[in-house]
């Protein structure tokens, strides 16, 4: 039986991921990391959660292993499994196991999508034990001192059927994220997309209109991510209205009335 080893360096982020602080989240996260508190990052899609975690991993100089969770994911996908190859059986660590061994920050994106029997594997890692039993392999891993678990969570589309158990939730410290306030969002869109500031201001104004429609026909408002997309297209020469329609309307809704409303907002600011 053989094992593969991983080089932590491959998970180190070399270049600073651009991140504008909204509040004191950088300092708060540093304090949480200092005591290795597992963290839950809450907020709507495209508001900067992943970027924040990438920035923090870079700032702390720790490897980052990210996993996009989904409902088909099993505990083995996180922890690892035996593989058969021409030389026989080989154990392959899953991303959570690798992170615990090398002392990485493990970011489980949209953990609520995973089934509960998958979610419970993180329990022993997220309390005083800081250990991960590999039942199939008969090994008990003590997490590396630098290991930290971070999960993301979008409170918007959580239903009662699909939520984390209290016994999972109460293993984490939490941070609320939201779209940045207007001035900061203009700065982010300008910097990330290369569009001029005046146009970025208009895009942000349109987004503010649309965000007021959340719960009144829209499930989610226009995210910062979509504003960056719109800015990128405009900066590359695409007509502003076509760019907005492609990035800020079409992906959001199929409802013809809602599309009209959003188109009218685009017209108002960019027409
Ligand atoms: N504070 C910020 N500083 C810099 N860029 C930001 C910030 N907030 C958002 N962005 C921009 O918005 C984009 C989307 O952010 P990100 O991918 O982190 O969203 P997310 O919250 O992880 O969304 P999802 O829940 O869909 O995964 C980033 O690629 C970046 O361009
Ligand atoms: Mg993300």
Structural summary, described in words:
With 271 residues, the protein is of the alpha/beta class. The chain has 2 domains: 2-176, Rossmann fold; 182-270. The protein has helices at residues 25-34, 49-60, 75-79, 95-102, 116-119, 166-169, 182-193, 197-211, 224-235, 240-249, 256-270, and strands at residues 2-3, 39-42, 64-68, 80-85, 88-93, 105-109, 131-134, 139-142, 148-153, 173-176. A 5-stranded parallel β-sheet has the order 3-6-9-2-10, with helices on both faces. It has a 3-stranded mixed β-sheet with strand order 1-5-4. A hairpin with a 2-residue loop joins strand 4 (80-85) and strand 5. Helix 7 (182-193) packs across helix 8, helix 7 crosses helix 9 and helix 8 runs antiparallel to helix 11 (256-270). The radius of gyration is 21 Å and the shape is elongated. The N and C termini lie far apart (66 Å). It binds adenosine-5'-triphosphate and magnesium ion (MG). The site of adenosine-5'-triphosphate has 20 residues, from helix 2, helix 7 and helix 9. The site of magnesium ion has 3 residues, from helix 2.
Task: Describe this structure in a few short sentences.
The protein is of the alpha/beta class. It contains eleven helices and ten strands. It folds into two domains: 175 residues, P-loop containing nucleotide triphosphate hydrolases (Rossmann fold, 3-Layer(aba) Sandwich), CATH 3.40.50; 89 residues.
